[in-house]
Amino acid sequence: DFDVSELKKLCGSAESGSSHPLAKAVTGHCKTNGIELSPAESYTETAGGGISAVVEGRNVLIGNKRLMDNSEVDISMVEETAHAHADNGEIPLYAAVDGKLAGILFIADKIKETSAEAIEGFKKAGIETVMLTGDNEKTARAIQKKLGISQVRSQLMPEDKATIIKELQEQGKKVAMIGDGINDAPALTTADVGIAIGAGQDIAIESADIVLMKSDLNDAVTAVKLSRSVMKNIKENLFWALIYNSLGIPLAAGVFYGLLGWKLNPMFGAAAMSLSSVCVVTNALRLNLFKSGRENKAAKAEINTKTEDEKMKKVMKIDGMMCSHCTGTVTKVLNAIDGVTADVSLEDKCAYITLDKDVADEVLSKAVADAGYKVKGIK
Q1: 278 plus 185 within the same structural domain
Q2: What confidence score (pLDDT) does residue 305 get?
Q3: d(CA 81, CA 78)
Q4: How far apart are CA 292 and CA 223, in angstroms?
């Protein structure tokens, strides 16, 4: 009973109330194709399932098979088609209107070029990778094959992810969870170390112990390498401090004087104590020389991208960002603009923006200003 444009309008309008990446894909497609959206009422989001809303007086339901089954919507006639697309790594979203199946949306979760490199980096570091997802099994298996992930658990509810992490911990394993959405919050809290993507949703960022400033899994690999370097440095300092004091304190106390005639002049003792502090601090400062191993690749990539695309890159100076929550908010509002990809740095208070098409500076500035931050300049 629906033509494609009408169904897209209903789905885009219903999804406009959601901040989920899949919802953004639907609304973004509508904007790109000039489909005007209508206001959505009675919006409801089902964790791990999908959403429902009333659009133009019609009840619209969009989500996975679990949501359709729970809502008693018959999808048997299209399941074969859905499975065929899922085998290619596409996520099927069923759309029902007024209680009847109206169509399927197929969304490809684009895999970043750096993700496979990050998975390989974890393996080299001796870390086993497990993908926990609410997607159906066929889609999850397709992504697992492309990225080389060790294990995959699919069709999970938010509480299921947390339960699996507890099971791994009971096996004596230390678990780090990387996530960016509402559905990941319980798992991020349960894990020994929760790592949130900076561009993720606020609840994920607040639940995590570490926030990655960029949406790049390689930064999680770098965080692991850096933490190991820090622990190694601490152990070195403790070892040498123990040796130093085990020899120095008995000597200063005169333990060896009666046997060997050794004694320590207080002046030399004071100097030796200061020298020990200098040694410890100097060893700790070696961490400034830490290299992630990706510097050469980043430099080559920068050289290779200095082409015509340079005129499509902009740097926005922003005032008022104080923490990772702020950078996450700015990243989110900028990336919500059609044709904009942004990485926000707290260190230099800048947003590094790549444009796929012409976007006026005024549009970028307004988005950031509406989020409560001041734009000092764009170049």
Answers
A1: no
A2: 47
A3: 5
A4: 9
* pLDDT the model gives residue 108: 78
Q: Are residues 135 and 96 in the same domain?
A: no
Structure tokens at 1: 């009973």
CA distance 275 to 273: 5
Overall pTM surpassing 0.85 (yes/no): no
Listed residue (299, 109, 301, 114) closest to 221, CA to CA: 114
Please state the length of the chain. Answer: 379
Shared-domain flag, residues 184 and 127: yes
CA distance 23 to 204: 17
Distance of alpha carbon 261 from the chain centroid: 64
The token pair at 134 is 């609410």
Range of the domain at 136: 113-221
pLDDT of residue 126: 92
**Are 274 and 348 in the same domain?**
no
Give the pLDDT of residue 136.
81
Is 162 within a domain?
A: yes
Ranges under pLDDT 50 in the chain: 299, 301-303, 305-311
pLDDT for position 200? 60
SS3 at position 358: coil
Which of these three, 108, 127, 151, is where a domain ends? 108
pLDDT of res. 308: 45
pLDDT at 2: 65
CATH number of 9's domain: 3.40.1110.10
Distances (CA, A) of 186 to 18, 163, 205, 208: 19, 9, 12, 10
Sign of the CA dihedral 218, 223, 225, 226?
A: positive
E strands present in the chain: 40-46, 50-55, 58-63, 90-97, 100-108, 130-132, 151-153, 176-179, 193-197, 210-212, 313-319, 340-345, 350-355, 374-378
Strand duo 313-319 + 340-345: pairing: unpaired
Which residues lie below 8 Å from residue 199, measured CB to CB, with a gap of 6+? 180, 215, 328, 331, 332, 335
Q: Are 92 and 85 in contact (CB under 8 A)?
A: yes
